Please model this.
Amino acid sequence: MESVVKWIVRIIGVYGLIVAQTFVASKIRVLGVGPDFILLGVVIWSYGRTRVQSVAAGFFMGLFQDLAGMGLIGLNALAKAVTCYLLGAWISDRPVEGLGLRSVTLFTAAVIHSLIVSLFFTRDANMGYPVYLFRYGFPQAVYTTLTGVLFFLLALTWEMRMRDRS
Model:
């Protein structure tokens, strides 16, 4: 019964990330740049998981994002899988605790993701790689990181409130 509840929570979480990426991210864009909620969710889920679990989560969430969007099929799946592979290699031997370390790992993952995605989108945007990277890639990495820091702070506040109640 407990494993069924875990799977239901995971499915609801995946659905929530897709809904947030589809509806919320488009509403809070600043100068054409919005946060990547799916990358944020995959990175947070990867903390404390094996590299294989991280890569699988990144690939499937990226594939869901590709199928829901109108972009190049497989690009987000590739970018998120590679990002999670490198993230898993970096955090596999150390615990990721504290706001600072979580923010650094999230920013690193967002930059890696932006580097990969920018390689393919420069052809569609008719601009050079560095221009696209500095116009869209790095600002999205910063925006995703700031969104993640806000989420971490809200989770920390929630945890402290629950601890005070008991």
Observations:
- The two ends are 26 Å apart (CA to CA).
